[in-house]
Automatic annotation (TrEMBL):
GO molecular function: oxidoreductase activity
Top-level taxon of the source organism: Eukaryota
Keywords for the protein's UniProt record, in alphabetical order: Membrane, Oxidoreductase, Transmembrane, Transmembrane helix
Protein name: Retinol dehydrogenase 13
Coiled-coil ranges (or none): none
PANTHER family, alphabetized: PHOSPHATIDYLINOSITOL-GLYCAN BIOSYNTHESIS CLASS F PROTEIN (PTHR43157:SF31), PHOSPHATIDYLINOSITOL-GLYCAN BIOSYNTHESIS CLASS F PROTEIN-RELATED (PTHR43157)
Family: Belongs to the short-chain dehydrogenases/reductases (SDR) family.
InterPro entries xrefs: NAD(P)-bd_dom_sf (IPR036291), SDR_fam (IPR002347)
Amino acid sequence: MLSFLLNLSYIFATVLVGLIVTFVILVIVLRITLEPIKGVCKCKTELQGKTVLITGGNSGIGLETAKDLARRGASVIIASRNVEKSEDAVKYIRGTTGNNKVEYRYLNLGNKDSVVKFAVDFNKEFDSLDILVNNAGCGAIKRKTTEDGIDLLMQVNYVGPFLLTHLLLDKLIASKPSRIVNVSSLVHRFAKLNVEDLKKCGSNSDLIRYSKTKLCDVLWTRALAKKLPHGVTANVLHPGLVKTNIFEFLHPYLKKVLFLLIDLLYKTPVEGAQTIIHLCVSPNLDNATGGYYMDCKRIEPSKIAQNDDLAEELWIKTLELIKQ
């Protein structure tokens, strides 16, 4: 009996070691395959006299972006609906960078009236807008519609940023050279899009709904870039899978497992912010527009995201939605 138990223990230990080794190898393979190089923005560009607006700049990659640009001397406006967290972020950025030109303004991308009010107030209060970073978004929320009948996830991740940018375009054009930086995601590759179903976001799957919103961000940026005058650029990016509060909707146990994988495979908020920062400050991108970036390098998005006809259809449909 003792011999049997010893053999059983040996077999169990062997299997356990094998699983651990297999897991480590899998982690290494995934890391090399999916995101082999953590791109780092090495530009030393200073931003004295520049005005930067960052949505969702109170946490995660938005906070790290705001801190970096403030350190370069920019006047930074954080736009968010979380007042307390944003006020804390302003104090933190001012304290760590020594730049007191950091402010907060309330903005709820899920509410059309809030977006319009923010833009009207911003255009009156600020003389220029040199860099607009559409960073704010949510990972998944329960299906709910806005007063205009738009899926709330689509509103927050796409329609809201589209409307905000549309209302700030005159300011961006008057401030040129200026830049628009939109945050999307690699998961846009999982999505297909029927623009006639845009309001409903057309799926019961949270992942598919989220993917569609991020595909819209890539397509919209492509269409926008073709319409902007010389001196104003628009680019979109995948920041990497980053441990941020965008995953708050997950069950606590599932979130722990996901965060373990993120720690092993992917990026910190500082690392995730690098491509955003690169698109904001790199002198090599003064005339680069309409591109999709990852790890500070331009790459090709999904085939559907390169469809100019679809991008134009989406543009027209979204203009119809925001004018309701």
